[in-house]
Amino acid sequence: MHYLRSIFFVIALATYTGLAQAQPSQSDRYAAQFQDILDQHQMKGTILVFDVQQDRYFSNDFEWASQGFLPASTFKIPNTLIALETGVVVNDANTVLPWDGKKRYSKAWEKDLSLKDAFRLSCVPCYQEIAGKIGLLRMRQFLQQFSYTNMDVRDETLQHFWLVGASKISAFQQVAFLRNFYSRHIKLSDHTYDTMRQILEIESTANYSLSGKTGWSTDHGDNGWFVGYLRRGEAMYYFAANIEPKDAQKADEFLAGREKAVRQALQVLGAFEERK
Questions:
Q1: Residue 147 contacts by C-beta under 8 Å, 6 or more apart in sequence?
Q2: Which of 91, 65, 81 is nearest to 185 (CA)?
Q3: Catalytic amino acids?
């Protein structure tokens, strides 16, 4: 079973991460609940959550969380950071990215979009243009600075390496990157950090704030992400879910289920109450 395999694997993970080792009984319970959530949505994969206060990871499948997959639209996070830091995109989240009038895959992309809207709507051509303006040298330099490794960045792949091909990132690496970003451990301006936090935020209430980005690649079959973080008072949870539909014919349900599954997992951990 997935969750029994996960308990065995967490021992090895704790050795090199330096994180506190979870008690088997509690880890077993959360692993089973995470797996039940994915089963409920007819999905397979991993939900990985790092609880900062407990200094501890939770997942239904740590092995899956260690495997690399195309970052897809989750790469819009580093892509946006680089664009802001280099001045490829000036000003702030409301900076307008003009539409060139050409037909696009999605009607929602066929208009001028603010940077925040382009991010939220996952406007592929918008970010392909941004990547082209950043250029190969700067893209490589910043990805090295971010420790965002295993990206196949070459002249011929510059505008699509996160969508198709050999680039890979794991759920553990996604969480590590997000932790470095939120803690401002990467050498970036305060303006870049502040703007990116604003762009990433999905919702904010009196009790918590939730930030994140979905992603979907089809180059090696349907594979989806939902990565981000949730803050509730002094508590902080980073998450990275990498999941696939059990039935390839139900892609619409799978796309909606990514975020729903993570929300349910966070509720299991007591991160926040279910929305009414």
A1: 176, 177, 180
A2: 81
A3: 73
Say what the pTM is.
0.89
Task: Identify which of 78, 95, 94, 194 has the alpha carbon closest to the alpha carbon of residue 141.
Answer: 78
Note the pLDDT tens digit of each residue in 119-158: 999 999 999 999 999 999 999 999 999 999 999 999 999 9
Task: List, in order of start, the domains of the chain with CATH numbers.
Answer: 2-268 (3.40.710.10)
Q: Confirm if 178 and 227 have CB atoms less than 8 A apart.
A: yes
What is the strand order of the sheet 56-59 is part of? Answer: 56-59, 43-51, 235-245, 223-232, 209-217, 201-204
pLDDT digits (tens, 9 = 90+) for 59-109: 999 999 999 999 999 999 999 999 999 999 988 999 999 999 999 989 999
